[in-house]
Amino acid sequence: MPWSDAEVAHRAASDCERVAWVDEHDRVLGALTRSELRERRLIGRCTFILLFNSAGELCVHRRTLSKALYPGYWDVAAGGMVDEGESYAESARRELAEELGIEGVALNDYGRFFYDGTESRLWCGVFAAVSDAPLRLQPEEVLEARFISLEQLRNELTSGFWCPDSERALQHYLDSRT
User: Fold this and answer.
1) 3-class DSSP assignment, residue 118
2) What range(s) does the Nudix hydrolase domain occupy (predicted)?
3) Nearest to residue 79, comparing CAs of 117, 108, 46, 36?
4) How far apart are CA 134 and CA 126, in angstroms?
5) Any bridge partners for residue 144, and if so which?
6) What confidence score (pLDDT) does residue 17 get?
7) What distance in Å separates the CA atoms of residue 46 and residue 87, rounded to the nearest whole number?
8) The pLDDT of residue 5
9) How far apart are CA 18 and CA 42, in angstroms?
10) Are 105 and 131 in contact (CB under 8 A)?
11) Taking the model in full, what pTM does it have?
């Protein structure tokens, strides 16, 4: 399926965005474009925001086919790369608003973890929020979204079409609550 003009433009702009470049200890070294960070296997910062409704269900969404990583996969968290000069919390607020249209909610910070996958190396900030506001999906990034129970999610995670980095973020969240 071909990408829309909006998806093509969004992908090109996204690849050129300057994002935080950090070392193995999460110390800022500078900023690089997303594409350079990936190509050189350097470490960046990113955020994962787990959005729950008041019934305790988690919002999961399917990524567009134009995404550089995991196109068409299901994701358990909104989020993305931390921009140059941006804090983890600022990035989390921005990403939640951009991807799902949720603004003005309290973000709870669940700390950081290092992700070293074949596709990316990241220091990850994990946040959670609760909202019953209607979702406004960003069409260049999100195909569809739904809320499901954590029990249902555990059964579905075995399908193999889930983003592995956000699965780790969910596990980090669950571990930090015990």
Assistant:
1) coil
2) 42-171
3) 46
4) 22
5) 62
6) 86
7) 10
8) 65
9) 13
10) yes
11) 0.90
Beta-bridge partners for 62: 74, 144
Q: What are the b/e assignments for 54-87, b being 16+ CB within 10 Å?
A: eeebbbbbbbbebbeebeebbbbbbbbbbbeebe
Instruction: Tell me the pLDDT tens digit for each residue of 39-63.
Output: 999 999 999 999 999 999 999 999 9
DSSP characters over 55-114: TSPEEEEEEPTT-SSSTT-EESSEEEEPBTT--HHHHHHHHHHHHH---S---EEEEEEE
Distances (CA, A) of 162 to 63, 71, 149, 167, 170: 10, 10, 16, 7, 12
Q: Report how far residue 12's alpha carbon sits from residue 26's, in angstroms, rounded to the nearest whole number.
A: 27
Lookup result for tokens 């960070």: 37
- What average pLDDT score do residues 137-141 get? 94
Q: How far is CA 176 from the centre of its chain?
A: 18
Q: What percent of the chain has pLDDT over 90?
A: 79
